[in-house]
Amino acid sequence: MQNPADYRIEHDTMGEVRVPANALYRAQTQRAVENFPISGKTLERKHIEALARVKKAAARANAELGVIDGDLADAIAGAADRVAAGEFDAHFPIDVFQTGSGTSSNMNMNEVLAELASRALAEIGVDKTVHPNDHVNASQSSNDVFPTSVHVAATNALLNDLIPALTHLAASFNRKAEEFKDVVKSGRTHLMDATPVTLGQEFSGYEAQIRYGIERIEASLPRVAEVPLGGTAVGTGINTPEGFPQRVIALLAEDTALPITEARNHFEAQAHRDGLIEASGQLRNIAYSLMKICNDLRWMGSGPNTGLGEIAIPDLQPGSSIMPGKVNPVICEAAIMVAAQVIGNDTTIALSSTNGAFELNVGIPVMAANLLESIRLLSNTARVVADKMVDGIAANVERARFLAEASPSIVTPLNKFIGYENAAAIAKKAVKEGLTIREATLALGFVERGELTLEQLDAALDVTTMTGPKGVKAVVTDDGGRLLLVRRADNGLWTVPAGIVEPGEEPATTAVREVLEETGVHVDVTHLAGVATTAPVVYPNGDRAQYLDVVMACAYVSGEARVNDDENLEVAWFTADSLPELPPLHRNAIEWALDPERRARFVPSTHGS
Known about the structure:
Layout (H helix, E strand, L loop, with lengths): L6 E6 L2 E6 L6 H9 L9 H20 L5 H15 L18 H21 L8 H5 L5 H38 L4 E6 L2 E7 H26 L1 E2 L16 H13 L4 E2 L3 H6 L2 H27 L10 E2 L17 H23 L3 E2 L2 E2 L2 H26 L4 E2 L1 H10 L8 H4 L1 H14 L3 H7 L10 H7 L11 E6 L5 E6 L5 E2 L2 E2 L7 H13 L2 E12 L3 E2 L5 E2 L2 E11 L9 E7 L9 H11 L15
Parallel strand pairs: 5-6, 11-18
Antiparallel strand pairs: 1-2, 3-4, 7-10, 8-9, 11-14, 12-13, 12-19, 15-18, 16-17
Helix pairs in contact: 1-4, 2-3, 2-4, 2-6, 2-8, 3-4, 4-6, 6-7, 6-12, 7-10, 10-11, 10-12, 11-12, 15-16
């Protein structure tokens, strides 16, 4: 038996409703609570905050335009500030699976603000009652206010949560890319051995994936921040005074410090949620990147004895209730599950975007809930991945080098000496008989027959030279100042054309030859732009060495830029202000070559050093 003291009677246009005695909401909210006992999932915190801030701005604008009294507007605005701060979240109990326009949640906010504002007025001796519809919802409709609140919440979450979190993760990968720049490991394509890369190159790729995700989010923000406020019921602005939407949006932008703008077309803005779909699609892309990266990391960290074991992932917790000592890559697994959730959320958002006809989409609450959940999950996960995993990853240098040298794909540099088919025969023999590539090459008699020398063989099989061109870099510009770049097949990175000096060559000759071989372009070398040293190389016998890296500035002469060999995936011209992500050494090379004050650059040295 329910105690009558626990309830009060409220009225709406459909009659009496029993509402919990301590509830700030009124009849319409209670009806929605009773109608939708579905998931137990209510509006996201940021959504409640955004809706309250929209109501605050609307109250201020209504007072300025003479629609409601100033003291009522002040009371509503004060109540909205308290709701936005999270004081009354328990009074927003409506399930996200509700009326598709969000009318139930809009009325929930109207009722709570009306109650709080009425109490605030009573406390200062003002005998006025604030009405949910006539005052809080004045000049508005659920059909423009609720989607506006979604766009405001999403813009806030993207700008202030997700982008900073992704930037934090990208910086973590950047630090590791620098730390691991000299760690040689086996590349892998199709999960099969490929030519070597450095662990730093792989981490630079992870950083680039995250930074591209940030760029895509930033590109979508103008549409996300465009709001339909002022369209009221069907986009025509009925019952809205002139200047109302512009003033509300200005006040809202000032209050939130967000780049909120009015919809360019109110009929599009209420009938479709394309801005939200676009943002969700970018979140899905970030989820794909996160899933790929975390899969790579747990593969590289697999073991400890029967896996790849190229990196050590921080141990965070025991991994098994039955196998003592087992530790699992738990952060990777959690992040992959988050990615799956975000991808699923995007599917729901996409389907909900079709849930409408004529002047209104009616899938808005679930679109809002899923979009804001995706942003929240990715924001939190990005920081967890950075702080609890990436920052603590260590490279198993010797293991990574061993696997790189054991890969049959290191035969690839022999192509130019003995041809692809002969190199393939060496790889097959090595795999079949358990030989190294060097041993298989000697066993098949290529050195004995004079097809290459022993020195050429050893130089070609030095895995440290396979992770990126070393020796000579060619920075090529055309008459318009554009730069010629290639995207390498072994690691997917954009670089300047580069290669190793062949016997009998001068560095300038190497630059001209490499550009022609890689891109089909003829160039002239104009000047020596810089000389530096490569990272240290440690040979199996313990010898250590560093090699010169020479940068040549070159001028385009003739030829159409194209992929001209199997070392590259793409060849393209770029303006200096639109360069893709480049390895640091290649970016440095471009800076040296374009510096008009230099015709040669050397790392500074002091007398006697």
